[in-house]
Amino acid sequence: MAGNPIEYQMPGGSSGRKRWSQPLMSLLAWLMVSGLTTSLGLSRNAQADYAIYQIPGTDAGLLLEGETNYNPGGTVTFRHPRGSLYFNARDLQVIQTPTRQTIFKRKSGKILSEKTVENYIKLAQWALQHGMLKECKSLLSDAWKLDPTDEKIKKLASLMVHINRPVPNNSASEAHVRDLIGGSRMEMSRSKHFALFHDPQSEKDAVTKMTRAEMRLELLEKVYESYFLTFALRGFYLRPPNEPLNAVLFSEHKDFLLMERRLEMGLKQIAGFYLPEENVSFFYDSGTTEVFLYLKQLTDKLDEMKEQAKRTRSPNAAHIIRFANTVSLLIDIEHESEDVATVSHEAVHQLAANTGLFPRDGVFIRWVHEGLASYFESSKLAVWSGVGVVDQNRISYYRALEGDPVRGSVEFIVSDLGFIVETALGDQLPAYGQAWALTHYLFTERFDELIRFYGKSRKIPVDTPPKEKGMELVELFNECFGDRVTLELEWRRYMRTLRTDMEQLAEEL
């Protein structure tokens, strides 16, 4: 198939399975031996309890967020919308910190002490970066009410009108996708801006009361709005598509792999991909991979133990029931986290190709595409967590190459040699980490120059050989950003200020 499929490999391993399976399998093995249980949770209205749990015998750790209740006997209960979780108090280091909502209210009081359009926009940008899309839009609405004549807010209001307007169905596009996937039996569900092709579904999530297809469409719309607003709040307005963006969600991993083989793409161990030529994104339910199926067998055995404990009225029945429920919930959260990360990543590839940022028929620059998609990627706590999340695995790959004078240099990344070399070495993820890190800095600190570089790079002929393309990219980069040595020093200093949530909390201990 012609064109460059834009694939997504989960951060932290050479495939989606390896990203999380080793830490989680280590955790579950420890659970089976010791009876300890852990989980992720949600926060209280004003105060959140964060806990750092280092999985015994591994380098992996879990950041736990939720409401902690200490019980007699040295146990702790974590409250989660899917149930209560239990563990021994001695196994966690708990830090009390304000919730995101509480921090938002404090910032609101400080920033909006003087109510100006600029201050409303400043606070809206903070809210958007932290996954508070609803609050962001509300602030923009308040800014428009404050001064509807302000030029910047007029442009933002016009954008909101466009992105809130549903695009009409496209029968030709639907027929094309069905022909591509051989999916005459697949259903098509619509949201404002996406057409999602999926296997028939009737089972609904216990918490959201939605099918998995409905949950994916909701996430796609959040990414859609966040994508446009992230650029617009920095003064750059992208063109919204006028037809639905097509995506395919397979219920079974094996069907996804069969589709990949049918397209003869030669991709390996991927969690999702976007085909620019066909303008279709492909995902699957990560809960159907071999690892998750194995974990399902484990939870089935735990359920059997639970039922047996009930029947025999075992004195440890309550503990066994809590233990089984906790393991099941932990797997469920990881399942959703993987899906959220993959969908948000590929959705940005598709949006960039359909909004004029990186045209579908333009030159393919791997670090540019993957850097931006990774910058928007969300994989925290199984929800849409905002833009520019500092992912542990991405930043770890950056740090591993920070001191490498060749593989860690700006020139090496910008020339797009990173993905070629790392692929030859057997693992592309260091290149993902470098692309993410450079994009994170440029997007945050040098946005105008980055947009100018994006524009100039689009003029490189599609058929330019890799060596010549690399030289031209470096030349354009120097033209847009100036002294590369100074930029690299600034980039290094910037990256040393970034911390994952777990690192920030660890510093408070």
Strand fraction equals 5-15%
Decide which structural class fits the backbone.
alpha+beta
Low-pLDDT ranges:
12-23, 25-45
Helix content: 40-55%
Major sheet: 6 strands, mixed
Helix-strand topology string: EHEEEEEHHHHHEEHEHEEHHHHHHHHHHH
Specify the number of helices: 19
Task: Please state the CA-atom Rg, rounded to the nearest Å.
Answer: 24 Å
How confident is the prediction overall: mean pLDDT?
A: 83
> Strands across the major sheet, in which order?
1-10-11-9-8-7
Large-scale geometry:
globular
End-to-end CA span? 53 Å
**Can you count the beta strands?**
11
Structure characterization notes:
With 509 residues, the chain is an alpha+beta fold. Helices cover 54% and strands 13% of the residues. The chain has 19 helices and eleven strands. The chain has helices spanning 16-34, 100-111, 117-129, 133-146, 151-164, 171-181, 212-232, 253-262, 290-312, 317-354, 366-376, 392-401, 410-414, 417-425, 429-445, 447-457, 466-481, 484-497, 501-506, and strands spanning 6-8, 47-54, 61-71, 75-80, 83-88, 93-98, 187-190, 194-198, 245-250, 272-275, 280-284. Strands 1-10-11-9-8-7 form a six-stranded mixed β-sheet, sandwiched between helices. A five-stranded antiparallel β-sheet has the order 5-4-3-2-6. The protein starts with 5 loop residues before the first strand and ends with a helix. The relative contact order is 0.11.
